[in-house]
Amino acid sequence: SLSLPLSLSLSSPSLSLCPPLYLWVRLEAFSDNSGKLQLSLQEIIDWLTAKDEELSEQLPIGGDVGAVQHQREFHQVFMEDVKSRGPFIYSVLESAQAFLTQHPFQEPEETLPDGKEVSPRKRILNVSRSVWKQANVTSDLWEKLTARCVDRHRHMERTLERLLQTQAAMEELAMALEQAEGVRDAWEPVGDLFIDSLQDHIDATKLFKEELTQVKEGMKHINDLAHELAISDVHLSMENSRSLEHLNSRWKLLQASIEERLKQLQDAHRDFGPGSQHFLSSSVQIPWERAVSPNKVPYYINHQTQTTCWDHPKMTELYQVLADLNNIKFSAYRTAMKLRRVQKALRLDLLRLVSVVDVFREQDLQHGEHVMDVVEMIHALTGLYERLEEERRAIVVNIPLCVDMCLNWLLNVYDSGRNGKMRVLSFKTGLVSLCNADVQEKYKYLFRQVSGPGGLTDQRYLTMLLYEAIQIPRQLGEVAAFGGSNVEPSVRSCFRMAPGKPAIEVSHFLEWMSLEPQSVVWLAVLQRVAVAESAKHQAKCYICKQCPIKGFRYRSLKQFNVDICQTCFLTGRTTKGKKQLQYPIMEYYTPTTSGEKMRDFAKTLKNKFRSKQYFSKHPQRGYLPVQSVLEAESSDTPCSSPKLPHADTHSRIEHFASRLAEMENQNCSFFTDSLSPDESLPNTKGCCTGSQRLAERKGGERGSSFDVNGGVNKVSPSLRNHIN
């Protein structure tokens, strides 16, 4: 390209000094030179304009490789033509520049009146100005044309590159789709598959779906290339467009086929796999065998002793281990610690609430009053433990064993008669109560299960929720310690949070639950038991000398430097020759801070100057008592079936299975005698909890203290405590 000055600052003073005759002679020579130059410039301008129009007619670029290659060859010829003209154009522009150097102009162009003759000098200036204008137009047109040629060439190269990529990708994708369609066409009908192979086919289909990720990415890449071409004003040819549309249609059809196949397999696995419960047969080992009653409820056969029972062998072992906790004197803690062991045995301590809720949603368990059968329960539990296995890959989860054990426990709690039916609300309450979540989140979720669209619940639905919750300690034989199975007093107590209102909000429910009401106090204690397991306190037990104290730590607020570990405190262990522990007592389930230590020292110092009469006049419980008739009924935990009196076990399995529900009513509960309600502890005066939940309370205000004996039994004044 050629850059020309828009104006020249050169001047020629000699023009004004020349005689008139000399000017006319010079003017004639000037006219000959300028005329040829102007003619050349005009010819170039006309040629450049024509070429620019010719270049515009070359658009748009074609939509296939062949068309673009042809256009590129044509454009190459066009560019060579333009390039060959370049030397001539540069030479004319250089002549123009030399002409303007010799004949500069400075004055602006003047418009003369009609009839007035133009002087020679003015003529020369006007010609110079005209040459300058033509030279600038020529330079601009040349620069524009050459730039457009280069841009057009680059555009063609990019377009050709993308079209080649698109063509190669389409060919590759067509081959991949053909292979995938071959696999799809080789699938056997789901109805012809063996039940035991359903899970293998589900896994193979999922793996096949994952392997098609590259096909999916390839399809997206092709569509992106087509979109980029369209943005650059290049539209695929009719043939390429049809090919791309056909590939998209084949891909969508393949995806739909895979999803349909997976759905059919999963439905078959749900209806036949878990229904037949084949995969759960591995939950027991020889000599045990897992069998199923006509209503799909599992029971277990011991071929060595020729006996049958409802409980899984591992569940029977778990109940025997729970009996070791009967030496805990405080019912709320005894119940919570038993539930903690159940929680761990069922691996529910690893299940997050959000995962549990997701599985409930996936299984469409939304209506609390809907009744589930055993097949639905197994399907939901399998989904839960499969989710757990996905989330905790570092932990080995025996899914058949976990599903069978959890089903066993849920049936013990909510279907002790083994009818094979359970309400969704019961199913959810049992799992949410023992899953791994903050207790406040559990309260909120459980309340939502019985609340209406406006977030309110009435007494009827709250009664349903509390009744489902009380079944958990009831199965452990602890129901009398928590006010019995009659939850109506608890419902009335809760509705006092919203006086005169027919329904309560979640805030009312949470406020009531924060008081740790007697009927559900075990749930809050379970949370503290779980947190305390990892706690280590830099203190020595006053009784057994354990240091550091692990778990709960109990500190007397009446005596200085008296700390007791949870084993000694909860079992009532004492040591001869040492002063008896004096109350009130602070419970810690997390390590103490320096601020808490100073606060306890100040409280202990105050309590040193207070008499026993002061504490008896200022009673305080760590829970919200609910007046109700205490029930000393037995737990509904089913016992194992009695041994068969004959050797022909298999011939009467079905008969015994159908009679298990009746037989359990004639046998004592596993927990009837061993887990009876607490007796009052004669030397216990009270206890309060601390660490993140301790709060000052006065008068009738509820603090964060908790009577470790739960006060959930008959609490005498000597079992009450006070915190200043």
From TrEMBL:
UniProt cross-references to Gene3D superfamilies, sorted A to Z: 1.20.58.60, 2.20.70.10, 3.30.60.90, EF-hand
Annotated membrane topology: Peripheral membrane protein
GO molecular function, one term: zinc ion binding
Domain WW: 282-315
Positions of region (Disordered): 696-724
InterPro entries xref list: EF-hand-dom_pair (IPR011992), EF-hand_dom_typ1 (IPR015153), EF-hand_dom_typ2 (IPR015154), KCMF1/Dystrophin (IPR050774), Spectrin/alpha-actinin (IPR018159), Spectrin_repeat (IPR002017), WW_dom (IPR001202), WW_dom_sf (IPR036020)
Start and end residues of each ZZ-type domain: 536-593
Keywords: Cell membrane, Membrane, Metal-binding, Zinc, Zinc-finger
GO CC term (a single one): synapse
UniProt-listed GO biological process terms: synaptic signaling
Compositionally skewed regions (Polar residues) per UniProt: 715-724
Compartments, as annotated in UniProt: Cell membrane
Keyword Zinc listed: yes
Chain segments annotated as coiled-coil in the UniProt record: none
Matching PANTHER family: DYSTROPHIN-RELATED PROTEIN 2, E3 UBIQUITIN-PROTEIN LIGASE KCMF1
Protein name, UniProt field: Dystrophin related protein 2
Source organism of the structure: Salmo trutta (Brown trout)
